[in-house]
Design a protein that fits this description.
The chain is of the alpha/beta class. It is 44% helix and 14% strand. Helix 4 crosses helix 7 (141-150). It is elongated, with a radius of gyration of 28 Å. InterPro entries: HAD_RAM2/GPAT1-8 (IPR056462), Plipid/glycerol_acylTrfase (IPR002123). It holds the Pfam family Acyltransferase. It is a multi-pass membrane protein.
């Protein structure tokens, strides 16, 4: 009976909002305006002198965030919101869409998209409750935790407001108050921005699932939460957006600064935080969507989807059944951008094949290399779905992670012909190279490094927690997927194990060569690090657990 009663309460609340919302908002604006003017005249409240002498509309009562000094803030407390302050996008809709699509399903995402026109006419509170209900109702708690850990941080980092982040980083203690669900932002704020505490809207759960309703305390009201949290004490710094609720929130601080809509848009690009200044390097992330799903961008994706599926099947058919030159021509005609540089190496030992050592961007790396060379190759891999194995146009062989057995397998394959290996052991989407396994260096003297890079605009063709059998399909569904194959010079004999170097030195040397060719950064991270972060496991599928679903 609890759930039906909650629905009745929600329906009653919606009716009250629709009947009285406009009058209530008008009264609150008048009230807030008077409150802010009173605070502006308070001598203990710091604001521009001009606004004290000549009261203006509330937005001019506070200086912009660019006026905040960053010096000597180590002992001070800062309060702010992530929505409209730390993040440049003024709408939180894209982040709810990420939860709906990546944590839920494509049908949940479609429902949220269809609701977007109605969200425009709702007030902030009702809009937030609606997006929460659609995105979270019936969603498993563990799925939301996965999205919060592996998907959202990338988009949050890309949306950070540079000036607001600099002020946040300068403060000693940081507390974020937000009306959006705490479960969506707390992990990112604590891990990436070193925030000390996060106070946000709490959601109801039952049996490991979200009900889609907020807790009994309702949507968090920031200025009330701040008073309850600090009591009579006033934080030193407050950052807020242009809304009346934010003005009320930051007016309770000793110093208050605004992030205006004009600054958030950042026409000059000065408010966009560059990758080099990220608080923590973004090496791994998961999820299928490669774009920020605003309503317009999401609509474009759904309109493209039917054509994209047909196009992916066509491109797959071309790659499997047609000759190399014709396949390249038709793939390019269908929108695939294919760039090849370097020349095919010559063999010095006819009894043994050439070992191609590639960076690993998608499961299609060996296929694109084989097409570039115009010859069949054999690829070895640690994990390959049955579907990918069936549709692969080249021979694929699974490795066991037993160094001795894998070495024997690769030696045998090299005696039969050319071999492709990706020593990172897993894919990486960002401009980083993972640690190279040194096994390949012990098996061959004729080694050709190959710098592979792939770019997509709509869907990622890799996943750590989803269905790997769909990876090639998702990659080929992109409107204009791009692949760059760069063949480097064959490794001189003196830089191989035959020249006296250890296998680890050879592997590290090739990793550096490939990183320099691509403009990437070398790391010591491994496959295990990736899967522990993104999926909470070591990325190893035992034979007895292999199932289709």
């Amino acid at each position: 009976m609890v759930f039906p009663m909650e629905l009745l309460k929600l329906a009653d609340w919606l009716l009250c909002q629709l009947l009285a919302g406009s009058c209530y908002r008008a009264a609150m604006r008048v009230k807030n305006y008077g409150f802010l003017i009173t605070n502006a005249k308070n001598p203990s409240f710091r604001s521009p002198p001009s606004s004290q002498a000549h009261p203006q509309p509330p937005q001019s009562l506070f200086p912009p965030v660019t006026k905040c000094s960053l010096q000597g803030r180590e002992s001070e407390t800062l309060v702010c919101d992530i929505h409209g302050t730390l993040l440049r996008p003024q709408s939180f809709f894209p982040y709810f869409m990420l939860v709906a699509f990546e944590g839920g399903s494509i049908f949940r995402a479609l429902l949220l998209l269809l609701s977007s026109p109605f969200l425009w006419v709702l007030d902030h509170d009702l809009k937030l409750r609606t997006m929460i209900f659609i995105s979270f109702c019936g969603l498993r708690v563990r799925d939301m935790e996965s999205v919060s850990r592996a998907v959202l941080p990338k988009f949050y980092l890309e949306g950070l407001h540079a000036h607001a982040y600099e002020v946040l980083a300068s403060a000693g203690r940081k507390v974020v108050f937000t009306s959006v669900p705490r479960v969506m932002v707390e992990g990112f704020l604590r891990e990436y921005l070193s925030v000390d505490d996060v106070v946000g809207t709490e959601l109801q759960t039952t049996g490991g699932y979200f009900t889609g309703l907020v807790s009994g305390s309702g949507v968090l009201v920031k200025h009330r939460a701040l008073k309850a949290y600090f009591g009579e004490k006033r934080p030193e710094i407050g950052l807020g957006g242009p809304s009346f609720h934010d003005h009320l929130f930051i007016s309770l601080c000793k110093e208050a600064y605004l992030v205006t809509k004009e600054e958030a848009k950042g026409s000059a690009g000065s408010v966009v935080l560059p990758r080099t200044k990220y608080p923590k390097p973004l090496v791994f992330h998961d999820g299928r969507l490669a774009f920020l799903p605003t309503p317009l961008a999401t609509l474009s994706m759904f309109l493209w989807l039917p054509l994209g599926i047909v196009l992916a099947i066509f491109r797959l058919f071309v790659g499997i059944y047609l000759p190399y030159k014709l396949a390249i021509f038709l793939a390019t005609l269908s929108g695939v951008k294919f760039k090849i540089s370097g020349s095919k190496p010559t063999k010095s030992d006819r009894r043994k094949g050439v070992l191609y050592v590639c960076t690993h961007r998608t499961l299609l790396d060996p296929v694109f290399l084989s097409t570039s060379l115009g010859q069949p190759l054999t690829a070895v891999t640690y994990s390959l779905s049955k579907m990918s194995e069936i549709i692969a146009p080249i021979k694929t062989v699974r490795l066991t992670r037993d160094r001795g057995k894998d070495g024997e397998t690769m030696q045998k394959l090299l005696s039969e012909g050319d071999l492709v290996v990706c020593p990172e052991g897993t894919t990486c989407r960002e401009p980083y190279l993972l640690r190279f396994s040194s096994l390949f260096a012990e098996l061959a003297d004729e080694i050709v490094p190959v710098a592979m890079d792939a770019h997509v605009s709509m869907f990622y063709g890799t996943t750590a927690s989803g269905l790997k059998c769909l990876d090639p399909i998702f990659f080929l569904m992109n409107p204009r997927p791009c692949y760059h194959v760069q063949l480097l010079e064959k490794l001189p004999r003196e830089l191989t194990c035959a020249g006296g170097l250890s296998s680890h030195d050879v592997a590290n040397n090739i990793q550096k060569q490939l990183a320099d060719a691509l403009g990437f950064e070398c790391t010591s991270l491994t496959r295990r690090d990736k899967y522990m972060m993104l999926a909470g496991n070591e990325g190893i599928v035992k034979e007895k657990k292999k199932k289709l679903f």
